[in-house]
Amino acid sequence: MLCKILLHRIDTFLSAIQSIGSLIIVTKFSSRVRRFAHSVASISLACLCFTPLLAVEQELAIDARLNEQIIMVPAGSDGQARLQTTVFRPNGPGPFPLLIINHGKDTGEPQYQQRDRFIYMATAFVKRGYAVLVPMRQGFANSSGSYANHGCNMTANGQAQADDVLSTIAFARQQKWIDSDRIVVAGQSYGGLATIALGTRDVPGVRGLINFAGGLRDDGAGCDWRGELVQAFANYGANSKVPSLWMYGVNDSLFGPDLVSRMYGAYVGQGGHARLHEFGVFKRDSHGMIASRDGEKIWWKETEPFLREVGMPTEEKYAVITPPPLPKTNFARLDDIAAVPYLQASGREAYREYLARMTPRAFAVSPTGDWCWAEEGENPDARALETCGKKSNQPCKLYSVDDYVVWQGSTPVDTAATAVGGSGQVGSP
């Protein structure tokens, strides 16, 4: 069976199952790259299996390099709600300047959304001596409280989400390891809308805002969501108290250049202090740029001078160890599909498809003929191996990572001769 499942466990995933063979394709939209996604990145995972349903939700391991931990932050008018919040920080007691990153919204029910980490941005800021908080707002992931939904009223939607950001800042300012006078707030997609809404408040210590592809789409009947977004940003601009940097790509599947121009024009036209950077095409969809490993070379170029303008540090102070890449081998050329060990015809078609995927990516195989590839997001090599291993009764090994082969084994002729595996038809994720 060919299945297409949104890895964020969204309540609509069953509708994506298609009866095409014994293959399951798992695709995670983390903001992500489809027109209906409202969160942070495009992550694809495709694997051969013999189970008709496989909801693969992989909670990545806590990153000790960044002193990562998960805490619950009080929120709500009575302080009874709790926000599941990821913390990253340098070694030492601080106090550290603070970055808060606000997440987007996936399609489906918010409580089924996975905890966001923005690991690449968090790493870049921890290196520069920042503590980083990523709060999941009320009703999202494992946060308590109720998701605030004001329908097509985009102004109210942004402000309701900003309330939880304000609660996170209030909590952070009470911590001895936070420099309460040096705070910058960033947000992606719906989190970007919330971030700009926050800029209408008097928030001590907040020096700057960064809006990555900010907005919210609502395809409900009778909702002119584009016009409502323009009006929301006009309202925010009229009451803006904090300078902001905006970044949108021209191939953003949710907010195209014309709409971005209208939103930005409305904001600065009403007195908002902002600088817009339109950075062109980024991979298949620029909407999830900040969640990509390759996004830093785009966003940091603009973020660095902005941070300096608002009096925030930019120099690297701490080393974060990067694991060494797997060594390249001379087993075969990357595009030599026939050389991949163990695979039957369907697996070789899958590898052909994998070659068209974007980096970061990884392809894993098993002596049973099972396979899995992963694209984008965090640790695609670990995700490919883990999910392949869930389908095979023998260990999986990586064959390729990014643009090179890492397989260490016998010659292509030898392995091709021993190829076994299950049956199944391969389709496109």
Main features:
22% strand; Rossmann fold; eight-stranded mixed β-sheet; 429 residues; disordered C terminus; 9 helices; alpha/beta; globular
Strand and helix layout:
Blueprint: E1 2-6, E2 17-18, E3 23-29, E4 42-48, E5 69-75, E6 81-88, E7 96-102, H1 119-127, E8 131-135, H2 154-173, E9 178-188, H3 190-198, E10 206-212, H4 225-238, E11 244-248, H5 257-269, E12 274-278, H6 296-309, H7 345-354, E13 361-365, E14 371-375, H8 380-389, E15 397-401, E16 404-405, H9 412-417
Parallel strand pairs: 1-3, 7-8, 7-9, 9-10, 10-11, 11-12
Antiparallel strand pairs: 1-2, 3-4, 4-14, 5-6, 6-8, 13-14, 13-15, 15-16
Q: Any overview of this molecule?
A:
The chain is built from nine helices and 16 strands. Helices cover 24% and strands 22% of the residues. Helix 2 packs across helix 3, helix 2 (154-173) crosses helix 4 and helix 4 packs parallel to helix 5 (257-269). It has helices at 119-127, 154-173, 190-198, 225-238, 257-269, 296-309, 345-354, 380-389, 412-417, and strands at residues 2-6, 17-18, 23-29, 42-48, 69-75, 81-88, 96-102, 131-135, 178-188, 206-212, 244-248, 274-278, 361-365, 371-375, 397-401, 404-405. The strands form two sheets. It has an eight-stranded mixed β-sheet with strand order 2-1-3-4-14-13-15-16. A hairpin with a 5-residue loop joins strand 13 (361-365) and strand 14 (371-375). It folds into two domains: 2-58 and 325-417, no CATH class; 64-309, Alpha/Beta hydrolase fold, catalytic domain (Rossmann fold, 3-Layer(aba) Sandwich), CATH 3.40.50.1820. Mean pLDDT is 85; it is low at 1-42, 49-58 and 413-429. It is α/β, with parallel strands linked by helices and 429 residues long.
